[in-house]
Structure formats: C-alpha cells, structure tokens
C-alpha cells in the first residue's frame, strides 16, 4: 500500500521561513501553531497538456512550496490569512463551503482542498481551524502554485481532523477537487506534489495513478526561468478550450473508427480501444482530421448531435463562446508529446551517464516546445524569446513548462556551463527590461528534485 505523507518533528527556530510564519501566526491569532503543512510546486520536464488526455508526464517537485501554520478549535469556522498582503483574510463556515468559479480568489483554492476532504469523509462536520498561508512559488507561472495550495489545504484538513490517508488517495482527491475552481486539469500537479521524493524526477502515469523514479542524466542541471508574464488559468478560458478541443477530437476519431464514441472522453482511450501505437495514432489523425479549424456546425454534423448537446455535453461553462476548434493540431500535439515522454524516460533509464544522453534529452525538449508553440498554441512571444535566449546561452534543451501562455521555461544546461548560462540569460532577458529586472531574483534559478508534501510538528 502507498505510504502516507511524512510527519516530522522539526526545530522551528532553525528554519527562517517556519520561524517567520510562526511569528506571523502568533501576532495574528495570539496563539502558537499546533502543526504546519507543506506542499511543493513542480516543474514539468516534458509531457505538456497530455495528463488530461490520460498520458504519462515527467515532472519533479521544486523547492518552492505552499506552507501553512494551523491550530484547531471547536467552532465550525475556518479563519484564513496569508503572509502576502495581496491575498486578503477570510472567515468561512465549514458547513457552507461555496466555491465561486466565476471569481477565482485565492481562498477558493484553499477551500477546494478542504471540500475534497470533507466529501471524502462523507460530508463530515469538520473542526474549526485558524491558518496562515505562506507561498514561495511564483503565482500563475506554470510551477503549480494553485495545486500546491489545494494539496496543502487537503493535507492540513486531514491532519486537523485527526485522519490520515496515503499519498495516492490524497493526490486523487486533490486533483478532483481543484476542478471546483473551474479548470479541468489532469492530475499531474497534485500527483507530484504528494508523490515526489528528493533527488528523483518521476514518471507519473494515470488510471491507475502511479509514480516511478526517473534518474536524471549526469553532467546537466535543470534551470527555471520565468518570462514574467502571468497567466491565471481559472480566470481565463485558454486552458479549458484546449481540454474541450481534445475531448471533441477524441469523439471524432473514435466515431470515424466505429468505436462507441459516446463514452470516450480522452485521446488515450481511443488509442487503447484500437490497440494502436502512438505512431499509428498520428497517422490516424492525419487521415481523419483536417488542419482547417472546425466550426460548431461541422462538429455537430460529424457527430450527429445538436448544438445544444455540444454545449451541454462537450463544452465547459467557460467555453460556451468558442466557435472554432483546431482538432487536428491539438491531437497531433498530444500523441506526439506522449511519445516524447516515453523516449525521454527510456534515455534516462538506458544511459544516464552517456555523453549522448544529454543531447538526446535536449532534442526532445526542443521538439516539445516547438509542438506547444506551433500545434498546441500555448506559448507566447515572451516564452519563445526566452527559449531562444536559453538555447543561445548554452542550454542543450529548453521548453515552456506548465500550462503556458506565460510563466516559466525549463532548460537543461551542462553543469560546466551553468555560470555562463545564468549570466547570459540575465543580460539578454532580464536586465534590458525594468519589470523583468525587478523580478529576476525569484525568476532565474537552478532546480533540483525536491521532496513531497509533509506535516511538521514543533520539536
Ligand atoms: P499556477 O501555474 O501557478 O498553478 P494558476 O493560474 O493555476 O497558476 O493559479 C494561480 C492562483 O493560485 C493565484 O491567482 C492565487 O489565487 C493562487 N495562489 C498562488 N500562490 C498563492 C499564495 N502564495 N497565496 C495564496 N494564493 C496563491
Ligand atoms: P499549471 O500551469 O500548473 O496550472 C496545468 C494543469 C496540469 C497540466 C498542465 C499542462 C491544473 C491544476 N493543472 O498546470 O494538470 O495539464 O497545465 O501540462 O489544471
Ligand atoms: Mg495551476
């Protein structure tokens, strides 16, 4: 059976961040925290926008995280505060948790996690809590600050109510309940936040959810750089439009091959039902779908459904306005990217020490970025510029990471070139622009695989 998140006794005074959080908590509530919970963000090394299509992805946890200090009481209220004053305090009743997806404020992400646990416990009455949250993950930048917040809230709600669950169950609950905010994500972020282990990236596979170690090549490190354009996924429809396009492509491909298309939702299910390889799926996409965007009328005609069925069964609440769907491009990206993840994993397994391994992994990262940019259209000019600069500065591979349309790039850089790389990216991307220059300190850093979500008690 999968392990539970670790619970460790820790000397708070020896850790600057915990010490500051404890002090803020005491100042705010006039009592000391009972325990702390921490959930990390992540960087996805390869496998973008394919988790919600059922395909494996390859992330690692980063050092940056959401940390929360907590006490419990016998009221039925949650008092929530944030170390960053841009996030306002709120008080909500545990008996009336309402998440407004039309206005995705920060506390709704927290409440997603609380609600997920409440439902898991059979709509239980939850204990009252006081919490202060402190985040170090740049928000809306593709490093999964949203999911770290949801996972942290789910974990601390379990602990506050003296219950515990294994990491896989917590990841599945957190992936499901983050959808209350409106984004129809696939589960990569919550899975790595719980299943991460220090020193190793993970191949995360779904149905059933499982994680296996991926040993990264010797002689190179991963560097994260933020293009300094924020993209809030729940406040915009970019993300869900891609989810919907993949869902419609699934139906069109399945119907064209005589499958029971009505019950199929993910592109991976079409592959499974046909027993085909990913290369065969790419050929099928070229045979069945056309590169011109599909209109609503064409989708309805091909599937034999009404406009109303399209709206209610296939579109999400925030994609009702969409009139054109690029099915061919999205499906090609997904099957191609799924194949690249498997190749990346094989190179790491077969020859992590080989000189050619780094080059082969770098090529896969470059192909991944091109596919995100050209077929999935989830890049932006700043991300493309930053990727180019990273490659010029000595990266062997570089690509956008996370959902995109802004946020971060991950680059693989030979260890002996890191200093030159950082200096060049600083000079070419950050220094010339005052906005970027001001954000540089938290925007450009080397990242090593970190550990998963955990509970801390004061020693
Ligand atoms: P990401 O790529 O970081 O997951 P999202 O757009 O999915 O970006 O989520 C960003 C949202 O998560 C923010 O708008 C905010 O509501 C919430 N969030 C992120 N970091 C924090 C934090 N430190 N404290 C409170 N809320 C946060
Ligand atoms: P970010 O950018 O961290 O919000 C989103 C999804 C992932 C995955 C990636 C793209 C959520 C919570 N996260 O991540 O599931 O689809 O985009 O690979 O929806
Ligand atoms: Mg997110």
TrEMBL record:
This is Galactokinase 2. Residues 358-430 form the GHMP kinase C-terminal domain. The keyword Zinc does not apply. Residues 111-195 form the GHMP kinase N-terminal domain. Keywords: ATP-binding, Kinase, Nucleotide-binding, Transferase. Residues 23-71 form the Galactokinase N-terminal domain. Transmembrane segments: none annotated. It comes from Umbra pygmaea (Eastern mudminnow). Belongs to the GHMP kinase family. GalK subfamily. GO terms for molecular function: ATP binding; galactokinase activity. SUPFAM superfamilies: GHMP Kinase, C-terminal domain, Ribosomal protein S5 domain 2-like. It holds the Pfam family GHMP_kinases_C. Gene3D superfamilies: 1.20.1440.340, 3.30.230.10, 3.30.70.3170. The lineage of its organism: Eukaryota, Metazoa, Chordata, Craniata, Vertebrata. It comes from the Eukaryota.
């Amino acid at each position: 059976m999968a392990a539970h998140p670790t619970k460790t006794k820790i000397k708070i005074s020896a850790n600057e961040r915990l010490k500051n959080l404890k002090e803020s908590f005491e100042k705010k509530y006039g009592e000391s925290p009972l325990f702390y919970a921490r959930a990390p963000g992540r960087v996805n090394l390869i496998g973008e926008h394919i988790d919600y299509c059922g395909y494996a992805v390859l992330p690692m946890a980063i050092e940056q995280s959401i940390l929360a200090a907590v006490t419990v009481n016998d009221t039925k209220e949650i008092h929530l505060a944030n170390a960053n004053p841009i996030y306002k305090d709120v008080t909500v009743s545990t008996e009336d948790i309402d998440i407004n997806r039309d206005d995705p404020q920060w506390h709704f992400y927290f409440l997603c996690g609380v609600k997920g646990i409440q439902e898991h416990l059979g709509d239980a009455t939850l204990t009252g809590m006081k919490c202060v949250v402190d985040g170090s993950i740049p928000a809306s930048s593709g490093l999964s600050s949203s999911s770290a917040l949801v996972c942290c809230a789910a974990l601390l709600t379990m602990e506050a109510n003296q219950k515990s669950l294994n990491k896989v169950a917590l990841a599945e609950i957190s992936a499901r309940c983050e959808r209350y905010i409106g984004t129809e994500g696939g589960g990569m972020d919550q899975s790595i936040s719980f299943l991460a282990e220090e020193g190793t990236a993970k191949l995360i596979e779904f149905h059933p959810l499982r994680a296996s170690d991926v040993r990264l090549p010797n002689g190179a490190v991963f560097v994260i750089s933020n293009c300094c354009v924020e993209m809030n996924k729940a406040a915009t429809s970019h993300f869900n439009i891609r989810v919907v396009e993949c869902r419609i492509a699934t139906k069109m491909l399945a119907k064209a091959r005589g499958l029971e298309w009505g019950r199929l939702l993910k592109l991976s299910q079409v592959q499974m039902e046909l027993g085909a390889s990913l290369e065969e799926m790419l050929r099928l996409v070229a045979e069945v779908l056309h590169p011109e965007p599909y209109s609503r009328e064409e989708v309805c005609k091909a599937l034999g459904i009404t406009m109303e069925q399209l709206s209610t069964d296939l579109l999400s609440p925030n994609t009702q306005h969409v009139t054109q769907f690029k099915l061919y491009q999205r499906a090609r990206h997904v099957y191609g990217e799924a194949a690249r993840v498997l190749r990346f994993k094989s190179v790491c397994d077969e020859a992590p020490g080989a000189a050619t391994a780094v080059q082969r992994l770098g090529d896969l990262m470059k192909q991944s970025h091109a596919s995100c940019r050209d077929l999935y259209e989830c890049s932006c000019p700043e991300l493309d510029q930053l990727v180019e600069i990273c490659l010029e500065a000595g990266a062997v591979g570089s690509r956008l990471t996370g959902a995109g349309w802004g946020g971060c790039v991950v680059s693989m850089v030979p260890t002996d070139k890191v200093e030159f790389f950082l200096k060049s990216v600083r000079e070419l991307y950050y220094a010339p622009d005052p906005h970027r220059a001001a954000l540089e300190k938290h925007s450009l850093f080397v990242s090593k695989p970190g550990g998963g979500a955990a509970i801390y008690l004061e020693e």
